[in-house]
């Protein structure tokens, strides 16, 4: 699911340099009341750490949490674009709660 309207890219290669932020939901079946965690992989504003994205989301699922991974645009801290994309991701998640089957209790 893209925060901006652009085409999908894969994690492995293109995603490190993508200019279009996206979120990937990892939702638990039949657990609408479970809390949701937004995973924002680190990388020191130079890259994104794959091992802090999908593996963390799957670990959270295993422990009873829905999760979404943000693939943000890598940019310098001065630009603050990554921070704004995190805020946009939270808004997008909140606007899709009902469509994804959440009760909105957490």
The overall number of domains is: 1
Share of helix, binned: 10-25%
What count of helical segments does DSSP give? Answer: 2
Order of helices and strands: EEHEH
The gross shape turns out to be: globular
Rg: 14 Å
List low-confidence stretches.
4-16
Given the helix and strand composition, which structural class is it?
Answer: alpha+beta
Q: How many strands?
A: 3
Biggest sheet strand line-up: 1-3-2
Distance between the termini: 21 Å
Beta fraction: 5-15%
Give the integer mean of the pLDDT values.
78
Largest sheet: 3 strands, mixed
Task: Describe the fold and architecture.
The protein is of the alpha+beta class and 106 residues long. The protein has one domain. 23% of the residues lie in helices and 14% in strands. It has two helices and three strands; from the N terminus they run ββαβα. It has a three-stranded mixed sheet with strand order 1-3-2, with helices on both faces. Helix 1 links the parallel strand 2 (36-39) and strand 3 (66-71).
Task: Spell out the blueprint of helices and strands.
Blueprint: E1 22-26, E2 36-39, H1 54-62, E3 66-71, H2 81-95
Parallel strand pairs: 2-3
Antiparallel strand pairs: 1-3
Organism: Gracilibacillus boraciitolerans JCM 21714
GO biological process, one term: xylan catabolic process
Protein name: Endo-1,4-beta-xylanase B
């Amino acid at each position: 699911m893209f925060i901006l309207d652009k085409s999908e890219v894969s994690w492995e290669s293109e995603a490190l340099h993508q200019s279009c932020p996206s979120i990937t939901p990892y939702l638990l079946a039949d657990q609408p009341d479970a809390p949701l965690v937004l995973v924002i992989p680190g990388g020191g504003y130079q890259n994104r750490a794959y091992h802090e994205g999908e593996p963390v989301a799957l670990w959270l699922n295993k422990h009873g949490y829905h999760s979404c991974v943000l693939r943000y645009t890598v940019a310098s801290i001065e630009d603050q674009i990554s921070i704004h994309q995190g805020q946009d991701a939270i808004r997008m998640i909140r606007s899709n709660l009902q469509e994804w089957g959440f009760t909105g209790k957490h």
